[in-house]
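User: Predict the structure for this protein chain, please.
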Amino acid sequence: MITSQRRKSKMSGHVARWIVIVLLSCVLIWSYYGNNAWSLEKVVSQTLAAAEQPDVRLEERISSGHGVSFVWLVDREHALMHHFFVSRPFGVLWENRSGVFGESLDNATLFNFKWHRTIIGKYMHHAYIGQANDPSISSVQLTWQDGREEKTVLKDGVFVAVRAFHKDIEEPSRHVNVQIKAYDDQGGLLYELNDDKRVVRQVEPTS
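Assistant: Here is the predicted structure, written as structure tokens:
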């Protein structure tokens, strides 16, 4: 009888310890990530607020691999664009890792690109993002440093391509060999960008 009571008491002690451990873990996770980490949309809003930028709807998210994604937001009302990398620790909690906020949108820009990269874990994550305001542009193709060709995501006048390189094996320090080409719906080449030419602007009419 006494032995049975001891076993029950010991088991109750184990259960109580595990409950305490779980509660402390939840408190630590909440204190580090905040109560919005469960929703990507809320993390985006929180990040914009911290950067003192107006709130805007999440435009798109694409994976760059290894648990990391790239998100971008287009704010036509204020002529701004924001983009940043996010990761999802534990597979459930979202976290902002690195980004650019308040980048101006210019209707006079027909085609351009910006380059953003960040180290997360063992990988260097690269993102190419730009405006494709010429309505003739139907698709955008990017040729990476190693020659790999990729059709970019093109939506609402903005194109994006992302990729991760292992920082110890293949980490291009610059993007001198990257080529970005815009095509019309017939496959005709409209524009070509590279490190020496990053923007094509509308030609001002001469009086």
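Residues 40-201 form one domain.
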